[in-house]
Amino acid sequence: MGGIEFLKGHGTQNDFVILPDPAARLDLTPARVAALCDRRRGLGADGVLRVVRSAALGERSAGEWFMDYRNADGSVAEMCGNGVRVFARYLTEAGLAGTGEFTIGTRAGDRPLVVHPDRSVTVHMGPATITGSSVTTVGEAAFSGVAVDVGNPHLVSFVDDDVDVLDLEKQPAYDGEYFPEGVNLEFVNAVDEGVLRMRVHERGVGETRSCGTGTVAVVAAALHLAGTDTGSSVVRVPGGQVEVTVAPGESMLTGPAEIVARGELDESWWARL
Ligand SMILES: N[C@@H](CCC[C@H](N)C(=O)O)C(=O)O
């Protein structure tokens, strides 16, 4: 029996299973996503990137390809900043993107991007909108934060202590009325002029080693707290670093994207899930 093609990739160690599915034939249930992402009973990943033709999903996108992104727990999310770079790397290496500049459709809207010769990818991430403020609690410690919409929801908290001391193993508490769809929680230290350090607890995943939309939210929040809406910063995460530029109505994210493996899923395993 034949298998189902997969690839594995990561962007600053935010890792993904890529499922090429141009005609949208796969029945990608939450149970299948959760099993694929499980690091013991599956391949292991923070999320799944299903590669589908926009037309096959009836999506009105300027991009030929649509990123159907799922979190490791099987939930659907609007956007993934590291995932979209890995998705672009896959399309380029598979010969499915004509040039190094193209657009990918996502649930948060179209994302034009550039794949650079040095293997990094720059993505137009759309607006990073400050939506208010809220509070999160890690253990006994409460942190106020800036709420930012980058197509998906974020709460960015600047903390006085080293972010490394935070225990992000458990889900930090947050205001479920303020964030009825859940929220990605970023904890940040300012390192230097134009350099920030971040750890993240992602909605639908848990702590990850990076979150691209999170890095954009962090820079937007830092600028907001400094009384401006335009600027750039390097954001260091446990899995590497990215560069972010924010301006009114637009933000840009540049970072690495790698494909590390390819193979076939066992079809009888898939069918039993
Ligand atoms: N890791 C991603 C974000 C993935 C979605 C997020 N967990 C959510 O539910 O909004 C990124 O790199 O942006």
From TrEMBL:
SUPFAM superfamilies per the UniProt record, alphabetical: Diaminopimelate epimerase-like
Reaction(s) catalysed by this chain's protein: (2S,6S)-2,6-diaminopimelate = meso-2,6-diaminopimelate
Protein's recorded name: Diaminopimelate epimerase
Biological process terms in GO annotation: lysine biosynthetic process via diaminopimelate
Pathway: Amino-acid biosynthesis; L-lysine biosynthesis via DAP pathway; DL-2,6-diaminopimelate from LL-2,6-diaminopimelate: step 1/1
Subcellular location as annotated: Cytoplasm
Keyword Lyase appears in the UniProt entry: no
EC number: 5.1.1.7
Family: Belongs to the diaminopimelate epimerase family.
Active site: C80 (proton donor), C80, C211 (proton acceptor)
Binding site for substrate: N14, N71, G81, N82, N152, N184, E202, R203, G212, T213
Database matches in InterPro entries: DAP_epimerase_AS, DAP_epimerase_DapF
Gene Ontology molecular function terms on file: diaminopimelate epimerase activity
Keywords: Amino-acid biosynthesis, Cytoplasm, Isomerase, Lysine biosynthesis
PANTHER family: DIAMINOPIMELATE EPIMERASE, DIAMINOPIMELATE EPIMERASE, CHLOROPLASTIC
Assigned GO CC terms: cytosol
Site (Could be important to modulate the pK values of the two catalytic cysteine residues): H154, E202
Stored Gene3D superfamilies: Diaminopimelate Epimerase, Chain A, domain 1
Source organism of the structure: Amycolatopsis suaedae
Taxonomy, superkingdom: Bacteria
Subunit record text: Homodimer.
Cross-referenced Pfam families: DAP_epimerase
Enzyme class: isomerase
